[in-house]
Design a protein that fits this description.
alpha/beta, TIM Barrel, eight-stranded parallel beta barrel, two-stranded antiparallel ribbon, disordered C terminus, binds flavin mononucleotide
Length: 370
């Protein structure tokens, strides 16, 4: 039985356990896309909790691919140095530093969620077709040249990520952003080779993955985050996700990070604990590829069961880590596995005494002197 605290490897990278921090946009750059002290504090304070993987938020591969003007970016060489500071600090506390490369497509040019509405001044958004996300501006349908330039931007961003010291790259193919909008027939109405049937709609994801794979080191894992379903009648389906995962695997993608939704305001999401885990399990068994499960995974026992039952190879938490940056330590205590967690020596006394207290309660012995 695989354990939440057992190591896991993809290519040349070994993760010390199966717990990772899911990418979370912080909308905290000035307007130049460079990471700030906020990103450093945010990511390192979670990395230090003993997680094995920290995925830095959606980082735009072009300026127009940002969700908001304050998004993180990696579209220029000037971004390498500040990203290197982030990646180095995450690695220094033992977690694998990763980056999510993104293009927001027709969902770009917005304000941060706490402000809402369109960015001002905004910019022309891009999409596979001139079909707007409900309430957003209509994107310009991408030309062949736009598509080639965007794939090249993903490749250049991947090379910069390698230079910055990230050890895993995730391509953002979920939540209605550009790659996802090519996959779904609801947003992709093209009738050229980039749309139409399954082959055409998956071409952008496959060609981007192929090009990025060829540009990064052999021992570096490549992950693609997908929305396994649009949760809309007539939209992208879990069956299609399984077939896409098979193809991505053949192109050298090492794992699929399985999310869902975000493409249409008409979605009916069956929210509940672990609601995306069945999608992850379907991709894992159907395509024979490792998967990362995410979405309302909040309890240590729940996370342990997902791994032990073979539904996923790793669990990611997002909001859980906003509430409890040291969730991994809490999980180790709850599951009696403080032995397996790399608690930094500076924090050792806080957590070892808690572990000892839990054990003492179990055996009815007095608390140790602190
Ligand atoms: C503040 C915030 C920012 C997010 N930003 C991203 C992002 O940059 N990329 C992404 O793929 N998902 C993003 N998500 C989605 C999360 O990664 C995660 O998939 C989702 O919140 C479900 O997991 P949870 O229930 O553990 O929060 C974000 C979620 C939150 C709460």
């Amino acid at each position: 039985m695989t354990d939440l605290f057992s190591p896991f490897a993809l290519r040349g990278v070994t993760f010390r356990n199966r717990i990772g921090v899911s990418p979370m946009c912080q909308y905290s750059c000035s307007e130049d896309g460079k990471p700030t002290d906020w990103h450093l504090a945010h990511l390192v304070s979670r990395a230090v909790s003993g997680v094995s993987l920290v995925i830095a938020e959606a980082s735009a591969v072009t300026p127009e691919g940002r969700i908001t003007p304050r998004d993180l970016g990696i579209w220029g060489d000037e971004h390498i140095r500040p990203h290197a500071r982030l990646a180095g600090a995450i690695a220094a506390v033992g977690a694998v530093p990763a980056i999510q490369l993104a293009h927001a497509g027709r969902k770009a040019s917005r304000r941060p969620p706490w402000e809402t509405g369109a960015a001002e001044p905004g910019w022309q958004t891009l999409g596979p077709s001139a079909v707007a996300f409900e309430g957003f501006a209509t994107p310009r349908a991408m030309s062949e040249e736009d598509i080639a330039a965007t794939i090249a931007a993903f490749v250049a961003a991947a090379r910069r990520s390698v230079q910055a010291g990230y050890r895993l790259i995730e391509l953002h193919g979920a939540h209605g952003y550009l790659m996802h909008s090519f996959l779904s027939p609801l947003s992709n109405r093209r009738n050229d080779r980039w749309g139409g049937d399954f082959e055409g709609r998956t071409r952008f994801a496959c060609e981007t993955a192929r090009a990025v794979r060829a540009a990064i080191p052999e021992d570096m894992p490549l992950v693609v985050r997908i929305s396994h379903t649009d949760w809309v009648e007539g939209g992208w389906t879990t069956e299609e996700s399984v077939e896409l995962a098979r193809r991505l695997k053949a192109l050298g993608v090492d794992a699929i990070d399985v999310s869902s939704g975000g493409l249409s305001a008409a979605q009916k999401v069956p929210l509940g604990p672990g609601y995306q885990v069945p999608g992850a399990a379907a991709v894992r068994s159907g395509a024979g590829i490792p998967v990362l499960a995410v979405g309302l995974i909040t309890e240590p026992e729940q996370a342990q069961a997902i791994i032990a039952e073979g539904k996923a190879d790793m669990v990611l938490l997002a909001r859980g880590f906003l509430r409890e940056p040291y969730w991994a330590m809490k999980a180790a205590v709850a599951l009696g596995r403080t032995d397996a967690l790399a608690i930094p020596p500076q924090y050792e006394r806080g957590w070892s005494s808690l572990g000892a207290m839990a054990m003492d309660r179990a055996v009815g012995e007095p608390l140790p002197a602190l």
